[in-house]
Structure prediction request, 294 residues.
Amino acid sequence: MQKDVGNIDASLATPRAVQQLISEHGFVFRRSLGQNFLVDGNVLRNIVRAAQITRKDTVIEIGAGIGTLTRALASTAERVLAIEIDARLHPILQETVERYGNVEVLAHDALKLDWQVLWDDYDLKQAKLVANLPYYITSPLLVNVLTEELPWDNLTVMMQREVAERLTAKRGTKSYGTLTVLASYYSDVEICQIVPPTVFMPQPDVDSAVVRFTMRPYTLEVHDPALLWRVIKASFAQRRKTLGNNLAAALSGILTKAELESILQALGIDSRRRAETLSLQEFVVLVNRLEDCI
Ligand code: SAM
Prediction:
């Protein structure tokens, strides 16, 4: 972890500061939006350090809340685009980031964002994504962000511990799944810190984790990234089924079972294996081969 990124503004990351702000504005938490605000300065600083923010960085933050993390990012980055879905939070956010001239608050549903359009509109060359994510959007958001293939530098995200453990799971284990394979194609994934419920207000039911995705090209490229995700999903569709059966179901009408069998055989992949035993390299080779027939 990077040692020092200058003065990180952690002034809102205390139970008292958050309580005061929400009381002043008569704000009531909405559970359905995953509103668990950070109230711990050490964890906040660890997120900013994990993201390796410098004065040259543009940071996109998802789910800015009352601006606790936004302020910390504004105090260390060049520019922050803070996305928040809940209109009730916008006046609070405007107030909390007012002292920084480098924050733009954007009213969007992060799950519906067209990332390419956002990058074009803000003329971004490279950016970092930093978020204390609402739990309910973690998986779909990560899939959207990763598969858009924009030149992200890194993504540093607080998420539920269980998803973090799936992302970093070893091949052959129960937790190794669609997200593990997809994320490892695009990035090196590390759990930077496990975080207890007590650092949030209100407290969630489960532990969280700060996860960093350091983007990098994979040694073997897939020619069609959209097909990669389709094949990964199809392969894991029913975990108890073999790879051959899952793929045959997804490709019915396109390839016969015998054709699929011979493709897998030619690649040295036994169709009776289960998806969780396949390495990333095997998925990539398979996707590039399937691209020629579908
Ligand atoms: N960043 C703040 C913090 O660290 O204290 C708040 C984090 S809180 C876990 C998640 C935030 O995401 C909430 O403010 C919630 O309103 C917002 N949110 C929920 N769903 C969203 C969505 N689909 N798009 C954008 N923001 C969303």
